[in-house]
Amino acid sequence: MEIYTLTDEKRRKILSKLKYNQIQTLSDFTMYKVKSEMITNNFIAASDWHLVDVQEDPFWKLRYTDNAPGKYVPKLKCYCGKTLKYQYVLESRNGKQLYLGKEHFMQHAGIPQKIANQIHERVNDIMIFRDEILVKYDRGERFPLKEYRILDRSGMIFEFGEDFRYKLRRFRDANLPLFHVDENRLMSKYRQIREANYALQRVLNREKFEDNHFLFRRMLEKYIDDVKIKNLKDDAEWLKSVLNDCRLVEENMESMLSISTNMTKEILKADYIKPINVRLTSLSMDGIFKVRFERILNSTKKSIYEKNEVDILLKKEEEKIVELNVLQVQLYGKNAVQDYRDMKENRSIEEVIDSISEIKKKYEEYEKIKHKYIHLINTYINFYPVLINKLNEISDKEIILSDKIEEEYIKMLNVYNKLPRLNEGERKIVRYFMFRHKVNIPGKGVKQGYSLSAIPIEKFKEVKSKDIQKLLLEYLILRVAIVEEIIHFKNKRLQDNYTKVKNIISGDGKYKPSKVIKSYNIKLLVSMLISDEYSKNANITLNKEVEWSPVNKIDNLNRDFFVLCHD
Fold first, then answer.
1. 51: which strand partners?
2. Residue 442: DSSP 8-state
3. CB of 494 closer than 8 Å to CB of 557
4. For residues 254 and 247, what is the distance between their CA atoms, to the nearest angstrom?
5. Collapsing DSSP states into helix, strand and coil, what is residue 92?
6. Which residues sit opposite 86 in a β-bridge?
7. Cα separation of 201 and 424, whole Å?
8. Which residues are CB-contacts of 514 (< 8 A; sequence separation ≥ 6)?
9. Which pTM was predicted?
10. Cβ(373)–Cβ(562) under 8 Å?
11. Quick one: pLDDT band at residue 548, thresholds 50, 70, 90?
């Protein structure tokens, strides 16, 4: 064994490079050894005084470094006032304690010079432990973190006692190299694990398993790194059993990719390889790793094992149809699946690919429409929350129909035709809340082949199904209720604005310029009072007696209501 001894100057030089935590860790464990030997051996048992403690100031003569936090203050003193690197604590039979340096320690303990020197020399001998660590640190050695982590993950670390585990944790946190005895103890256990790892790695390598697509091999290698020695035989058997399945799945994937079209390759990568690899990488190396790994492997086999390209494409087509159906039901209340499932059963790969592309285009088209409706509703909610809440209530309300369906339809159609016309944005609001009606009720909503518009009575009479007639009547009643609510809301806002304008302009019957009136746009206010644009479609009469000529007519309400681009 190499002996490491340092001069005081060299020792201080290395210590000055260490951080506070590193110096404190070295001191704690060095002094633990000092106390363990000296106090336990009781060098001065024959004396009236007993050695009960030996303390060290770890930052002795390092006061001008940044290692000790804050301003350096000498930690230890002799009873005579001298600052100390080492302090000996003696205790008398009646419990009195003395804190002494080397010289006073000999005097008060009443022990011979020779024994006192032996005690002090023994302290210095134990510092060889510290010097070895300092020399290793100075030449670049650090804590064996890789080996420690493998022991920790495998659980083998718990085969050491609590004291040694605590020591390892402290040296790990300080990133200090270990004393050779401690390092040998750690590495001996690590080598046992590595031998087990190598044995399992040989099992893995015998399978000629490349792992080109799924992360099976990487995860098994990670598991091998964390394996527990006591389960070595069981692990080897389990590894042999799963490796065969992993290899076959990989070969099947390789074969499928080699003959697939570009679309199928993208589907395999996006829908199979990527999500399975995400699941694999999320596996933790705990006690049920084997169960979870096999579960992923089995689900992979069910998904792609012994499938051909047509199977993969048909499954993707079905997924896209379902996605489109959900979106189309949200928009139109009708079943999109009917549009695509009536196709012939036996189709070529090219035909299935064309079908998937068509469904994707339809989905993208509906996504844009949905985005426009969401933007429209959000705009109205911001400016007219009261109106939107009321329209929600109307759309969610159950509509009770009369038995006289045709007669009721004529009556409601007459009501609808007499209602004022709406602008483009308002018409889209009407469609949105009609789409919402019954949309979440299975089998309900607008049936294919029939629109949400109010169809003429002639076309209504041509409808043979009473159920469809009832549905058309229901949506006409709903349309009338929604339009009436919007008109009522507009009229109320218009009347409120008119009252405000009238009060501003003709507060005492005449217009008088003032600082207050100048803060308003007079042309706009006058325009609102005399313009026919504001009285159109409204059930109010505007005051036309104000003596001002017409100005630029601004349709303020139609500007406020959001106008959505035609979809």
1. 90
2. T
3. yes
4. 10
5. strand
6. 56
7. 71
8. none
9. 0.50
10. no
11. very low
In this structure, of 169-178, 346-355, 401-410, the range with the lowest mean pLDDT score is 346-355
Q: Find the DSSP H helices in 384-399.
A: 385-396
Edge-first strand order for the sheet with 86-92 is 49-56, 86-92, 97-100
d(CA 431, CA 419) in angstroms, rounded, equals 16
Whole-number Å distance between alpha carbons of 551 and 531: 9
The model's pLDDT over 298-316, given as tens digits with 9 standing for 90+, comes to: 999 988 887 888 888 988 9
Q: Which residues of 389-418 are buried (b: 16+ CB within 10 A; e: fewer)?
A: ebbeebbeeeeeeeeebeebbeebbeeeee
Taking the C-alpha atoms of residue 170 and residue 176, their distance in angstroms, rounded to an integer, is 9
Q: Which two tokens stand for residue 108?
A: 């008060």
When mean pLDDT is compared over 96-100, 275-279, 340-344, 430-434, the highest value belongs to: 275-279
| Measured distance CA(60)–CA(87) in Å, rounded | 12
User: Scanning the structure block, which residue is given the tokens 């019957």?
Assistant: 509
Task: Give the length of the chain.
Answer: 567
- Alpha-carbon distances of 387 from 279, 367, 380, 391, 562, rounded to whole Å: 47, 26, 8, 6, 14
Rounded to whole angstroms, the Cα distance separating 426 from 424 reads 5
Q: pLDDT (tens digit, 9 = 90+) per residue, 122-131?
A: 777 777 888 8
Residue 471 has pLDDT above 80, yes or no: yes
Most confident of 240-254, 344-358, 483-497: 240-254
Encoded tokens for 375: 């933007």
Q: What is the pLDDT of residues 42-86, one digit of tens each?
A: 555 546 677 777 888 888 777 544 444 555 667 788 888 888 888
The per-type count for the chain, helices as H runs and strands as E runs, is: 23, 3
Mean local confidence (pLDDT), 404-425: 91
Residue 513 DSSP code:
-
What are phi and psi for residue 98, nearest 5 degrees?
Answer: -125, 135
Question: Is the pLDDT assigned to residue 373 strictly greater than 50?
Answer: yes
Got the DSSP string for 78-136? -TTS-B-SEEEEEEETTS-EEEE-HHHHHHHHT--HHHHHHHHHHHHHHHHHHHHHHHH
Amino acid letter, residue 231: N
What lies within 8 Å, CB to CB, of 262 at 6+ separation is none
> What is the Cα Rg of the chain in Å?
44
Alpha-carbon span 468 to 463, nearest angstrom? 7
Q: Tokens 């409601």 — which residue?
A: 412
pLDDT at 281: 93
3-state DSSP: the chain helix, strand, coil percent, rounded to 5? Answer: 65, 5, 30
119, 43 Cβ separation under 8 angstroms: yes
d(CA 85, CA 74): 9
86-92 and 97-100 as β-strands: parallel, antiparallel, unpaired? antiparallel
Average the pLDDT over 272-295 and give the result. 91
Partners of residue 98 on adjacent β-strands: 90
- 258 pLDDT higher than 50: yes
Q: Backbone phi, then psi, for 409, in 5-degree steps?
A: -65, -45
